[in-house]
# Entry
Amino acid sequence: MNLIIGLSMLILGGISAGSSYVPLKGIKGWAWESLWAVQGIVAWLLLPLLLALLATPHLFTVLHQ
# Structure
């Protein structure tokens, strides 16, 4: 069972890492600084907060304590 969980996490991580570069084709005219700023805000701030809200009931109460 642990092997299946480990392989699933590995595959999910690979898909996540590979899909982070998909938007590069649609914004060819952007400066790379703008691209990395937007991608950083989404990947490092918004998505973790969204996933934490979905996974943890009463997240802000937990963080406050």
